[in-house]
Amino acid sequence: MTNPDAAGRRRALGLVSLAVLLASSTWFSGTAAAPVLKKTWDLSDVQASWLTIAVQLGFIAGTFIFALLNLADVFKSRRVFFFSALAGAVFNAAFALFSRGLGPAVFLRFLTGLTLAGVYPVGMKIVAQWYRRGLGWGLGVMVGALTLGTALPYLILALGGVVRWRVWVSAASGLAVVGGLIVRYVLGDGPYLGQAARFDFRAAFRLFGHRPFLLQSLGYFGHMGELYALWSLGGFFIAARFIGRRPLAPETVSLLMFAVVAAGTAGCVLGGLLSRRRGARTVALSSLSVSAICGLLSSLIFTLQGTLFVLVMLVWGAAAVADSAQFSALAAEACPAEYTGTALTIQNGIGFAVTVISIPLVARLGQIAGWRWAFTALAIGPVLGALALSRLKTLRSADDRMGFRERSSNTGLR
Length: 414
Fold this sequence. Notes:
This protein is mainly alpha-helical. The protein has helices at residues 4-23, 29-32, 34-40, 45-68, 71-74, 77-98, 102-116, 120-128, 135-158, 165-186, 203-206, 211-241, 250-278, 280-296, 298-301, 306-322, 324-334, 340-368, 371-374, 380-389.
């Protein structure tokens, strides 16, 4: 006979994952449209990268606002998700309908990123409210859905959206509304919801005084230094690989990028499964190691025969994001239960701040040294992240020495 609690968790995980997939479709809509906007608005590679950077900056600003005000912990998570998804849909639709140049587009992408701070980290907290054990698995499925949502704009472009980008970007806003409605009106509260936290402006800062939380965060920051540069600039790397031989059409490049990003969905789910036996730390460390190797060997990967080149890029795409959910599980384990939302949000915010450095840096290296050599820099983040994570031997929740009350056995995530 099926355990009702297990069935309820599976249903909740499916609903949250679907909602995150739909709401995150606004995230990379500007990045996927970059190839056509680059031609239409006569943009350089660096200028086109700002369509992604602006979203990252907005997300960073949003996460700091959410973390400092403890919004995801003081207010009910499902309501925060709902209103954030709706606001993101509005700003994304404005980008599609009213942008006529880079300046307005960047501003509206920034506002879209601002609202996503109430979608991704809050979605992770909602998953944590349903799982006492196996959080790495639950987050692996949810982050896999986010990854697939990130990949969808590339698929739309590959299917012909390159000449109708305003239409499908607007459609992404409709999907975000549906995602918000699912969380607000279809999904219920999890059994480990707990009480609302009291407002504590210093909570986000004190978390980093706890060594386990600090070390796993440093690992996450290294992971982020690679991931979004690969996602946003991988199309340039792939296109450059075939220049002078058999140049690829923009639609083909978009299709390959969809495959590379979507491979991360399989990576997240596989990482979640492995975390049940090996633990989140082992999975994250292994993923960082594979990413580091791919980055260090990227100039050789660039010279591989076409089919083999694509296969290696798929492996890289899977490994680059497989550790993301595991870092979130580690963060949830290492923080006080009542400030889980704040912990996940501040970690995400700083991680995305790293991408604001890595994306233009790699784009600039691509212009100066060529795309064959630019992606070697992507190894820096995983190497540094792996070094920090390798020093994390035990994982204990934050205690009274940080000024937090110790997590009780009734509310702890184990």
